[in-house]
Design a protein that fits this description.
heterodimer; A: alpha/beta; seven-stranded mixed beta sheet; 11 helices; 7 strands; B: alpha+beta; five-stranded mixed beta sheet; 13 helices; 50% helix; extended
Chain lengths: 287, 335
């Protein structure tokens, strides 16, 4: 495990930031946020890699890739289970310039069973990213975004261990906040057991319904609590509920590409700007 | 005769609204679609990042408290003392707030802001009759809209050059809109009281261990910070006791829970909450509250726990009797 983790290229070289989108609660727009922010950052000229670690493969579909295409089976599954398979072998280009993807496959759901008796099962993805970063013959990315499944299983733990930062998308509902608290417990365990120092880049409020009184109250209380106790960790921009996002996903495109003038696309662009600002302002903590 | 002349030539003063009044100030952004991206909230406009700063920003001669609402474009302002808060004060306070904001000016579009001032009453109504009177007064104010004032001295003096951000003060919205706004506010307040303890109880400390590390041991405990000032707590206590005396159990329980969030180690709050829950018929919650009061050393809590447990036992006995009476007798199998 030589060298400081994670993905340094020497003292003067750039360092990849690995940002995962995690929340135990499903349906909080993790995948949507990951895909749209990846596309927004790519539009800003950053080299972005989007890794789909969700067996549902929705991020893969949303980026216009077919998870069932011939020759694309078993790839993410094999990436975690086969120690000889390199990351560059499973990277696919997308229709968005500067944006590549690691598509998911449905076999990923069997990954936990395959890894349960393996040594170092929590650090598989981290090792692959480290090897990729150290290689002289691979394309270097500015940001790697990882879409996690809606659970706290071994896949999510691999993603958290491999990441330098985490973004927690939340819907302004109580169950979503409970999922966020559970994620915090997992991160604290990883910190104490594996010395994983993952930073919280921010809490992103998604699926905000402006007409719902409940959403406004929950958002306000959450923002006040986190700001008061920890600091400015809630993204100032919020993602409102919009049917355009779902329509763009059905078309296999992120909404920032399909309809860049829409309010949803502009909201994601604003979050991407805020996100890159936060990435520039903070330094990753290396284990 | 002199009395009649004095009555005729008495200078007209704004009609006092009575009581500790809150008014709702809504700032409407001209860039509705872009407000998320550019300035976001009224806090940004006012240059105040937190509620406390917003309170400090507010001039003390106009109001004593301010409460930012969840839509981040509206805030409540409360009058400093009884019978001394007028709707014009609300307008002046809102205008000076906007004018004093560091981002005020044509570049921020603040000069295009439209400010609505709506009197709100039912938050502080000590009893229902007074609330009805206040509602009538609100309707009266709505029927007679206020005249927009000229630029106030505060906004004219403090406005950055070259253009003075004179917030255009509008009258209250039409009756139907005002009712909708008040209904929304009432619902928001009710939800806030319900959700505040539950969200405050969530522990997000684990998310921050990578940033701050563990603090003082194996786990991060978030500091206990109250959202209520002592004056607010007194007001809630008064309302809670009033609701308990008038038999409005749901409202009383809500207020006591808010007070417990403010001061969870107060045995009296727990005991009174237990009494309210007991009167409401929720014995499980009552038992929980009395047990907390007993844990904190309340002398009478033990007797109340016995009463609650006795009532629960009697209810269980009655229930079992009913079940035995109503249970149909099936023939035994294989008979």
């Amino acid at each position: 495990m030589g060298g400081p983790y994670p993905l340094d290229q020497g003292a003067a070289g750039p360092k990849m930031r690995v940002v995962c989108f995690a929340n135990e609660k499903g349906g909080v727009a993790k995948t949507t946020s990951c895909v749209n922010l990846a596309a927004s950052l790519a539009r800003r000229g950053k080299a972005v890699l989007c890794m789909d670690m969700d067996p549902q493969a929705n991020a893969t579909t949303a980026l216009g890739l077919d998870p069932d295409a011939a020759g694309r089976d078993w790839e993410t599954y094999a990436l975690l289970t086969d120690s000889l398979l390199a990351l560059e072998r499973v990277i696919c280009p997308t229709a968005v310039p500067n944006l590549d993807a690691v598509p998911a496959d449905r076999q990923l759901s069997n990954c936990e069973k395959a890894l349960i008796n393996e040594v170092g099962r929590e650090t598989r993805l981290r090792n692959k990213l480290r090897d990729y970063s150290k290689s002289l013959f691979t394309k270097k990315y500015d940001v790697v975004l990882v879409d996690c499944p809606p659970s706290l299983d071994l896949i999510t733990i691999n993603a958290l261990v491999a990441s330098t930062d985490v973004i927690v998308p939340v819907q302004p509902k109580l169950y979503s906040l409970k999922g966020m608290a559970r994620l915090g417990e997992t991160i604290a365990t990883l910190y104490s057991q594996l010395d994983v120092r993952i930073r919280l880049l921010g809490v992103l409020v998604c699926l905000y319904d402006r007409s719902a009184c409940l959403d406004g109250v929950v958002h306000d209380l959450l923002r006040r609590k986190i700001t008061r106790e920890y600091g400015d960790f809630v993204f100032h921009n919020i993602i409102a509920k919009s049917v355009l996002i779902s329509e763009a996903e059905a078309d296999g495109k992120p909404v920032v590409i399909a309809d860049p003038e829409s309010a949803a696309a502009r909201a994601y662009e604003a979050v991407a700007e805020e996100m890159s600002d936060r990435l520039d302002r903070t330094q990753p903590v290396y284990a | 005769m002199f009395g009649a002349l004095r009555a005729i030539f008495r200078p007209r003063t704004p009609k006092p609204l009575g009581g500790q009044r809150w008014v709702l100030v809504t700032v409407e952004f001209p860039w509705e679609d872009e407000k998320i991206r550019r300035l976001g909230t009224v806090e940004d406009v006012l240059g105040a990042r937190t509620l406390d700063e917003l309170v400090r920003t507010l001039t003390s001669e106009h109001s004593s408290a301010v409460d930012l609402l969840p839509d981040n474009c509206s805030f409540h302002i409360r009058g400093p003392r009884d019978d001394q808060f007028h709707t014009t004060d609300g307008q002046t306070a809102a205008r000076s707030l906007v004018a004093n904001g560091p981002q005020a000016g044509p570049s921020a579009g603040v000069h295009q802001l439209r400010i609505r001032v709506i009197p709100c009453f039912d938050e502080v109504a000590p009893d229902r009759r007074q609330a009805e009177r206040h509602t009538d007064l609100a309707d009266e104010v709505e029927r007679a809209p206020l005249q927009p004032e000229a630029a106030s001295p505060a906004s004219a003096d403090d406005a950055p050059a070259p253009a003075a951000p004179a917030g255009q003060v509008e009258s209250q919205p039409a009756g139907e809109t005002g009712k909708k706004v008040r209904a929304y506010m009432r619902k928001a307040d009710m939800l806030r009281a319900q959700l505040l303890p539950r969200i405050e109880a969530l522990d997000f400390a684990g998310l921050f261990v990578g940033t701050f590390g563990f603090r003082g041991g194996t786990t991060v405990r978030s500091p206990r910070v109250s959202l209520l000032s002592p004056a607010e707590a007194n007001r809630f206590l008064m309302l809670a006791n009033q609701s308990r005396r008038t038999g409005e159990w749901d409202q009383a329980a809500t207020h006591y829970r808010t007070l417990i969030t403010h001061d969870p180690d107060n045995q009296d709050f727990w005991f009174l909450l237990g009494k309210v829950e007991q009167s409401r018929g929720d014995m499980k919650q009552a038992l929980h509250a009395f047990q907390n009061a007993l844990r904190l050393g309340h002398g009478s809590a033990r007797d109340e726990i016995r009463k609650v447990q006795g009532a629960a036992g009697e209810a269980a006995d009655e229930h079992s009797d009913l079940v035995s009476l109503w249970r149909p007798t099936f023939p035994p199998p294989h008979s």
